[in-house]
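re: that complex we talked abt at group meeting.

here r the seqs, copy pasted straight from the sheet so there may be weird spacing, ignore it
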Amino acid sequence: QSALTQPPSASGSPGQSVTISCTGTSSDVGGHNYVSWYQQHPGKAPKLLIYEVSKRPSGVPDRFSGSKSGNTASLTVSGLQAEDEADYYCSSYAGSNNLVFGGGTKLTVL
Amino acid sequence: QVELVESGGGVVQPGRSLRLSCAASGFTFSSYGIHWVRQAPGKGLEWVAVISYDGSNKYYADSVKGRFTISRDISKNTLYLQMNSLRAEDTAVYYCARDLFSITMILVVPFHWGQGTLVTVSS
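got the structure back, here u go
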């Protein structure tokens, strides 16, 4: 159950787009379409942004989109806004009824 | 609205036990699987365990298997995490999170989260 690999940081200016990657293996990200993305502001609980690679729960702006290619999933935040500054985590089903998270990416809006 | 409220955290010595609770409201408790996810101070999220909607299936991370036990009391709309043989590395905020989908054994999307309860393992 090794953690998925995310870049520790990412940044962009307001209005720009930024993409955060999440790399796993064929046993997790590459082997299932159960990839999710979460946003976490300091001192708050995580919020689900994306599930099943690219689906958005009701209420999540379409500025947030997800995709997957091979063993790497990606979250793209378009039209960056100040309130998007937060930590972002990916998660994936890892087989054997286990779930694994990425190490997290701190997104800074410049 | 969906609400999950964790309790039971605190400071405990290594090797001792602690039981966390997660009181649920605003949804049909018996229809959803629920996860425990933890976050060590300043660190990332770590999935801990999940229990199916009917309590028939329980799964654990390798790091807690054999030490932690997840359970639920449908009559009280409450989820529990019994933590035994606690170690310093178990120090974290523990969140309970309801899964996105109902009446399913595919439990892979923690959706509604509580605010967490802090467990500190220290002598």
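couple things i noticed - Chain B has a mean pLDDT of 96. The first strand of chain B starts at residue 3 and ends at 7.
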